[in-house]
Design brief:
Blueprint (H helix, E strand, L loop, with lengths): L1 H15 L10 H8 L3 H7 L3 H17 L8 H14 L1 H8 L4 H23 L7 H24 L6 H12 L2 H9 L1
C-alpha cells in the first residue's frame, strides 16, 4: 500500500509539472490532485523536494543498475539521456526551477555511483586509495553532468547515441591511463 500511495503522489506531481512550474506547485495542489490528505503526504515525504528526489531515484536509477561495469557504462549513460528525453517536460521543469540543484545532485549521485563501480573494476589490481578513486570519479561525473545539462539547456536536439559515441571516444583508454598515473 505504501508504494502505491507514493506512486500516486509522484504521478500527481509529474502531472502537475506538465503545465505548472515546479516552484508554483504546493503540497495542497498535489494532495488535491491525487485525492489524499496532507497527513498522508507527510507520512511518505518530508517535503516536495524529497518527493522530487524519490521520483528521480525510482524512475531513473532503477534503469541503470545493471550498467555499472567498464563494458556497459555507455548503456547506463544512454539510459539517463533516454529518461530525460522521455520525461522532457518534467525534467526541464525541474531544470528551470529552484529544484535545479536537486536535479543536479541527483544526477551527480547516479553518475558518481556508476563511475565509481567502473573505476573499482578497472583499478582492481591497482593500488589506488579511496581518495584517488573519488577524485577520478568526481572528474568524470562532473564532465558527464555538464554535457547532459548543456544538452538539456540547448533543447535536447542532439541524438543521445551521438553524445554517447563521442563520450566513448574520450573515455576509452583515458580512464585506464588516469588510474595508471595514480599507481
Amino acid at each position: 500500500m505504501s508504494q502505491t500511495t507514493k506512486k500516486a503522489i509522484s504521478a500527481s506531481l509529474k502531472k502537475l509539472m506538465q503545465d505548472t512550474p515546479f516552484d508554483k506547485i504546493t503540497i495542497v495542489d498535489i494532495v488535491n490532485d491525487c485525492q489524499v490528505n496532507r497527513q498522508t503526504f507527510y507520512y511518505h515525504f518530508k517535503d516536495i523536494y524529497e518527493l522530487l528526489g524519490w521520483i528521480y531515484k525510482n524512475e531513473a536509477l532503477t534503469n541503470i543498475a545493471e550498467y555499472k561495469t567498464f563494458n556497459t557504462w555507455q548503456k547506463g549513460f544512454l539510459k539517463i539521456f533516454t529518461y530525460v528525453l522521455e520525461n522532457r517536460l518534467f525534467c526541464m521543469n525541474t531544470f528551470r526551477s529552484l529544484a535545479r540543484e536537486h536535479l543536479e545532485k541527483f544526477l551527480y549521485d547516479i553518475v558518481f555511483n556508476l563511475i565509481i563501480d567502473v573505476i573499482n573494476e578497472v583499478a582492481e589490481d591497482a593500488s589506488l586509495d579511496d581518495k584517488e578513486k573519488t577524485f577520478i570519479s568526481n572528474f568524470y561525473s562532473y564532465a558527464f553532468i555538464g554535457i547532459l545539462t548543456n544538452w538539456m539547456r540547448e533543447g535536447m536536439k542532439t541524438d543521445p547515441q551521438i553524445i554517447i559515441s563521442d563520450l566513448t571516444k574520450l573515455v576509452d583508454g583515458n580512464l585506464k591511463r588516469a588510474i595508471h598515473k595514480y599507481t
